[in-house]
Design a protein that fits this description.
The protein is built from 15 helices and 20 strands. By secondary structure, it is an alpha+beta fold.
């Protein structure tokens, strides 16, 4: 193919598809390359896509009968676990039912394929329906550089040329390093491994068990016993007729403690509260993948240079500050902003870094970098041993004392709390943690 594209996008995940949709809507000629058989074929993750950017890409998506999402979030739960007990903070509200939804549960293999279909529709409706393509089953070996500027990509013996390249390759930073925007692999102490099972139920049984109505759904995060002493946490999301249950574990801590993610997942599933929740289902999928920790220190030294932009997890845009695990929404917004920058570059006929830097400026002004900058202390605090060991043990110990009634004089709540603090921590340590929490959140 001799034609030169306005842009080549590498990776058909959420970031790449958001960029492609934006380019198609602006009548740009682009090539979206995906190494899987189809968009989502290699994406085993899933979870909640937060925010309303999906409605910008696919207006009124909630009215579509066979859309690529599973459920919208109407209930959120945070659960602390120790060996015996669970203590949950539960929030359910009808305001979540307002459209566009602020959180939809997705299984990425299904969702990405659906969104790719919407990109194909946008291409067909553009001024250049025969000039833009989604090309699956292609592995990009190299970003072509001339005089420090990206001019296309090479795959095997073939070369495809373009005025610009958007790298949305995910956390595997091969091309980001090749173009000189990152020096090495992301170190193990800054990445996590996600492990997940999808468990199927009769849909009516699932909805009864989790008290769901219509397409309403629930997200549940777990802290404590779930990870068997390893840095990280657990999760459970309700899909249409399945649940996604799993863990996100610190790779370095996992390696140093010599534990297997699979064994820890089984450990998590055997907890009394979890075991009762998931009983009677059939495991239909098991998967694992690597994700960023949310520490902005591991971001590439810059996200642009002449002719090239980095977005999504390739830019290590992910954060868990205790409120939610945010990654897909960051990927979607960064893909949109990257594509909008390419549209401006074409209008100005200038793909140099002086134009490309507008992407970084737009990202810095968006919720993505504002939140990553504001909540870095919270990210570090959540990965401290106190948060995945001492705090959940203390909370559950207090819960057992507070909610147990027998034929003995009942001590005051403050005495129960003092006993739990003495057993699992200290007032001084809690004061320091409280100060950090108040400052970071």
């Amino acid at each position: 193919m001799d034609e030169k594209f306005d842009c080549i996008i590498v990776g058909a995940g959420v970031a790449g598809l958001a960029a492609a949709m934006t380019l198609a809507r602006n009548n740009m000629k682009f090539l979206l390359i995906e190494k899987g058989e189809f968009a989502g074929a290699k994406n085993v993750s899933g979870g909640v896509l937060w925010g309303s950017d999906l409605a910008k890409l696919v207006p009124n998506y909630w009215e579509e009968e066979n859309a690529g999402w599973e459920r919208y979030i109407t209930q959120r739960r945070l659960t602390f676990l120790d060996e015996q007990s669970s203590f949950s903070i539960d929030f359910k509200s009808s305001h979540f039912q307002e459209t566009p939804y602020t959180g939809v549960v997705v299984l990425r293999s299904k969702f990405d394929r659906w969104l790719a279909g919407k990109v194909e529709d946008a291409i067909a409706e553009s001024d250049f329906p025969m000039d833009s393509f989604i090309a699956p089953n292609i592995k990009v070996d190299e970003v072509l550089m001339e005089d420090g500027k990206a001019v296309g990509i090479r795959t095997g013996e073939e070369e495809f040329h373009a005025n610009s390249v958007i790298i949305a390759e995910g956390v595997n930073n091969l091309l980001t390093r090749q173009v000189g925007l990152q020096d090495d692999y992301v170190p193990a102490d800054h990445v996590l491994t996600g492990i997940k099972e999808v468990i199927r139920y009769d849909q009516e049984k699932l909805e009864d068990r989790f008290q769901l109505s219509g397409l309403g759904g629930m997200s549940n995060e777990y802290i404590g016993y779930a990870t068997d002493g390893v840095e990280g946490g657990g999760f459970l999301y309700t899909n249409r007729d399945t649940i996604s249950i799993g863990l996100v574990l610190g790779l370095k801590d996992l390696r140093e403690k010599g534990k297997s993610p699979h064994d820890i997942l089984n450990h998590f599933k055997k907890h009394p509260a979890v075991r009762d929740t998931i009983r009677g289902g059939e495991v239909v999928e098991y998967s694992a993948h690597v994700v960023s920790s949310g520490d902005k220190r591991i971001m590439p030294k810059e996200l642009y240079k002449d002719g090239v932009l980095i977005c999504g997890e390739a830019a290590n845009l992910l954060m868990n500050a205790g409120k939610a695990i945010q990654g897909m929404d960051y990927a979607m917004r960064s893909g949109i902003l990257a594509a909008e920058t390419i549209v401006k570059a074409k209008e100005q006929d200038d793909y140099s870094s002086s134009t490309m830097k507008e992407y970084r400026q737009a990202l810095d002004e968006s919720f993505v970098m504002k939140d990553m900058n504001s909540f870095q202390d919270a990210v570090h605090m959540l990965h401290s041993p106190q948060m995945f060991k001492d705090v959940p043990n203390l909370i559950c110990d207090f819960g057992r004392k507070f909610f147990t009634i027998d034929n003995e004089p009942t001590p005051k709540s403050r005495k129960m709390l003092a006993e739990s603090i003495k057993k699992h921590s200290s007032y001084w340590d809690l004061m320091k943690l409280g100060f950090k929490g108040a400052k970071s959140l």
